[in-house]
């Protein structure tokens, strides 16, 4: 049971989760006399604010991600461990991985984020994937592109229309950006690429339970976003609740009646909850949680009764100075991760850890090509200037200069040309076999246009 | 059974396969009075000469591929069909897809290429994947990167060495380039990224049954390639046959003795055979085939007895003017695809189709960063000048200017920095669960370096 190699007498900081919170916590500790171990199930960090771009083919998956080892290669006090944390023994200060490996810590930073939540309707998951991981983005890309391929091959116009109806559930920033990008994909990118269908006739429907999209944003921007989306042809259904999701339908209720939207491509951006390890941490520490299960942290981001354990990022329920809940955006993870690292450094010097204060630097949402709505501390912006700002901010935070250069080029190109070069249908079900047989219902097996002419 | 929409009275050319042969055939027909349908199981073309770069993370999968619809969007007489051809009724001039769809043709171009062949040892496939598709590249990338992750977590040095032994079977251009790229990955890219292992201690072993790598190339270049590879630290085992491949070993025979190479990462670049549809075509047409099953075509690339059916690309066995077999390189597909299209155009005008003549414009192999060996019609090159040539040629043939720009940037960057930004471990088994539990054999479950210090 002896440890080898890097055995250390220094303070051991173990960080679980390689998102914004975990990575910024690790980096902030680079000059501290500690040993840092960053644990993630994946070998890469995902730049989640641009996931919807990968989901619609505008950028490649590797453009919005970066190997964790590369990000930390020069930080000699940090190591990366590919592993899945499953349990926590706070009394022993020991973390357990899925393969039984135990890892001791002196300080622990938990930054494992959230996953899509279906409000207890887990059966909806297979019909309406969420957008939290790079695999999710690839899966959404696959489904959206296969829908157009199926419509192209579908001889029955009514069934073709079902294929060309895309439903996004949830009108927050993710759902709004995704709906806008799907509309751009259909109306601009795919234009001229099909011979039977006209992709610009596709319907993109954005369903939101409350009365407005981007709830919590200033009214001026909510209206601007709605206008931009409607110009792109997105049908916005606010005040509309999802009642059921199946393989070929989304049932919605607005007022008293239930309406069935026939679709084979539903996407979920409506709710989240902590991942399994985050829930396990809350349980093991008997920590207070909010409505969706986030851990309510102490002012310094530690967990009540466990000053050596910090929770940062989307897993943490944090309030700002006004008592408002800090939204789950990248800045929350970045700022909280840095704060937890500084709190650990202060404690090492026997100094008290200061309270966390969230600095609201605004929100940005890109709802279409050059169409951005921005909320800044002192002003609100829409249109092209907001887009330039959005571009700069996103490129600034994209880690690694190679990625930044390549993404900016690829992206500028795709914006100006409507091209989306990363439209690959890959994965287990990527080949034609994933499509339903054409004409399986009415006995016709001919392809429109290149069919059995001699038999006609 | 009536066809709709694009029903046509024009000559119908159906092309199966969206590789070099199929795409160049389709494009060459752009100004002809024909209707072209290009059928592929995938929605994208793969730039196969750079697959090994994607397999080692130097470029993203979408950098070496392009949506077929995008490539043909401006060609109004062409359409793309996502589908899998399974059978051929040459008497009815009808193609059948896996879902039962029938497609009539007047001329047929078969360009379905080859897949890895394991010489009847199909059980080797799961232990030693080949490199023919984009998914293959992602799988090889996953295995190679996971091997280093496993070695980093492996407390037992001997087992760690097994993880860090990579075996490439087959010393043709693919195997040679892959071995060189893996050595670069280990020695340059991954340097400084691990804390327990030193990736530059990894062994990359290239096994080739005949006496020299790059068989068929001029001796000067074969020696140059060997020298370059050896400088990179690749162990070249020529005159060495593979006897068995299992989950943790490759058994090889050189002379009389069998040696066991312990490895968990074997890759296959040793043999190919036609895909299932190509074999079906050969059978259905009773076409002559060569040793590995390629269809021996007539001088105009049609199939004996079927002047309306052309076979191009790797599926075709073609001889050059000197009677030598044309090797399976991109140029073979490009030139043959163009020729088949021209032959069809000539026939439409009741003119005879001319015989195909392969123009040997040389071979290029990149065996490492800036290390290229080039065989040209009039001269042979090695080193940096050859590399510049290689770069130009590959970028020229990469389809689409966006891809060309982005790839050249990403690539120049990765060459000069040894960075490989596309090192994502994705797919079904991409998470930590794909790794074997550490220490499962000796009862130790501690991680080197961050282990159970208090228990030590």
Report on this model:
The structure is a homodimer of 456-residue chains. Among the domains of chain A are: 11-41 and 83-116 and 273-348, FAD/NAD(P)-binding domain (3-Layer(bba) Sandwich); 122-270, FAD/NAD(P)-binding domain, CATH 3.50.50. In chain A, α1 (20-28) runs parallel beside α9 (330-348) and α4 (134-153) packs antiparallel against α5. Chain A is of the alpha/beta class. The longest helix of chain A has 20 residues, at 134-153. Mean pLDDT of chain A is 84; it is low at 1-6 and 428-456. Chain A has 11 helices and 25 strands. Chain A is 30% helix and 24% strand. In chain A, the strands form 8 sheets. Chain A has a 6-stranded mixed sheet, covered by helices on one side.
Q: Biggest interface and which pair forms it? A: A-B, 99 and 99 residues
Terminal CA distance of chain A: 77 Å
CATH classification class of the domain at 122-270 in chain A: Alpha Beta
CATH topology of the domain at 122-270 in chain A: FAD/NAD(P)-binding domain
Helix/strand/pairing category of chain A: alpha/beta
Strands ordered across the widest β-sheet of chain A? 5-2-1-9-21-20
* Number of DSSP strand runs of chain A: 25
Helix content of chain A: 25-40%
Major sheet description of chain A: 6 strands, mixed
- CATH architecture identity of the domain at 122-270 in chain A: 3-Layer(bba) Sandwich
Strand proportion of chain A, as a percent range, falls in 15-25%
Number of helices of chain A: 11
Q: Over all CA atoms, what is the radius of gyration of chain A?
A: 24 Å
Give the overall average pLDDT of chain A: 84
